[in-house]
Each structure stands twice: as structure tokens, then as C-alpha cells.
Specification:
Rossmann fold, 4-stranded parallel beta sheet, two-stranded antiparallel ribbon, ComF/GntX_DNA_util-trans
Length: 231
């Protein structure tokens, strides 16, 4: 009884609301309300993971295997608001929730056991210190919970890069050239790896990470993001 009292008291002082619609959350809703979960602009790239518009985009950048995204980016839509809250409004729980929800979808479609490890795209230490967390790592953690596959930050970012937002495809490729490396003492030889990020546009960042892992002997590398498209 005392536990329920304190929970009700905390909910009164610090109410839990859906970040998209503002409605109060039920106990069984970790981050988004059920209605907002159901109206997310979900993509179905996982249904044709080897042959879709994302894999076509990545041709020539890496040996393409599977590429997927949970939702489609729409300007001024729910996906843009979620990404903005995640990256700029100190809402790491959104990344974890997106991973958890997408992991459930992937598990329901036969993806359990498809990878040995999930690796997030790393932030530069200065940027991570400023933000307080790596949004891609939060997404990886949510996926890990649902898929029961370990997630670990095995890559490091060697150079601080400028934002990719207003760069062309060629400029994005040049911006991430020789930026990433495998952390010292880590080994990915023979592993089936899922590399994850918050959003895929040209795919330059994800492919740079994938190529590093392949160069160190990974068996194959798949890619997954919260959203596809955007800036």
C-alpha cells in the first residue's frame, strides 16, 4: 500500500505525459501513449531488407546486405518531432522506446538471433558530453531489450565532424572519411553485426562505420535506423 501511495504522489508531482500528444500515460505505457504508438509513420523495409530503396541508396558505398528503418521521416510530422525531442530536448527515453518497439516488430518477423551484436554509431566525446547521451546508443539498447541481443559501443569517433544537415552526398562522404575506428582490444572477427543510428539520409555515416567493421573481419553488417529520410 505504501509503495502505491508514493507512486501516486510522484505521478502527481512529476506527471508522465506522452511527448507527442501530451496526454497522461498509463502504467503500461513506458514513453508514448498507445494511440501515438499506433499512428507512427512506420516503414516496412524489414519485409524486403535485402532489396529496398535504402539498399539501393547504399550501392557503391559498402557491400550492401540488409538496410532497414522503423519509421519514415516527414517534415513537421510525428517523426520529426520525435527526433528533435530525442536529440535536442534531453529525451533519451524516446530513443530507447523506438528501439523497443522496432525490436518487437523485428522479433515478430523472424529477426531474433539474426545478429550477434548491435553496435550504435558513436558520437564524438565532446558532443556526447554536451548532449549527455548518445541517441543511437539509446536506440541500440531498446533493440537489445526486445531482440535479446547484446548492444555495445565498439566503435569510436576519432575526429569531430561538422553537422551533415546541409551537406551534399559527396560532402557527407568526405566529412566522415577516416572518422571511425574499432576501439582498441575489441574483436569483431566473424560476427554478424547490426549497426544502428537515429536517421539515414545518404547513408554516408552508417556505411563508414560498416566498412570499418568489415575491414576488421566482421562476417556481414546490416543497418537499421529510427527514421529514413529527412535532413
Amino acid at each position: 500500500m505504501r509503495l502505491f501511495f508514493w507512486k501516486d504522489f510522484l505521478d502527481l508531482i512529476f506527471p508522465r505525459n506522452c511527448p507527442l500528444c501530451g496526454k497522461s500515460l498509463f502504467d503500461f505505457e513506458p514513453c508514448l501513449c498507445t494511440i501515438c504508438q499506433g499512428t507512427l509513420p512506420r516503414a516496412n523495409f524489414h519485409l524486403r531488407a535485402f532489396d529496398n530503396e535504402l539498399t539501393a541508396k547504399l550501392q557503391g558505398l559498402m557491400p550492401v546486405n540488409r538496410a532497414m528503418a522503423f519509421i519514415r521521416f516527414t517534415k513537421k510530422g510525428k517523426s520529426q518531432k520525435l527526433l528533435h525531442l530525442l536529440k535536442y530536448r534531453n529525451k533519451p527515453e524516446i530513443g530507447e522506446e523506438m528501439g523497443r518497439l522496432y525490436g518487437i516488430t523485428l522479433a515478430q518477423n523472424g529477426y531474433e538471433g539474426e545478429w550477434d551484436i548491435i553496435i550504435p554509431v558513436p558520437l564524438h566525446p565532446l558532443k556526447q558530453k554536451r548532449r549527455g547521451y548518445n541517441q543511437s546508443e539509446r536506440f541500440a539498447y531498446g533493440l537489445s531489450q526486445s531482440l535479446k541481443i547484446p548492444a555495445k559501443e565498439l566503435l569510436e569517433r576519432k575526429k569531430f565532424t561538422e553537422t551533415q544537415t546541409k551537406k551534399s552526398r559527396l560532402q557527407r562522404l568526405e566529412n566522415v572519411d577516416e572518422v571511425f575506428d574499432l576501439k582498441e582490444s575489441e574483436n569483431v572477427s566473424g560476427l554478424r553485426i547490426l549497426v544502428v543510428d537515429d536517421v539515414i539520409t545518404t547513408g554516408a555515416t552508417l556505411c563508414a562505420c560498416a566498412n570499418v567493421l568489415l575491414a576488421y573481419g566482421a562476417k556481414h553488417v546490416d543497418l537499421a535506423t529510427i527514421a529514413a529520410g529527412g535532413q
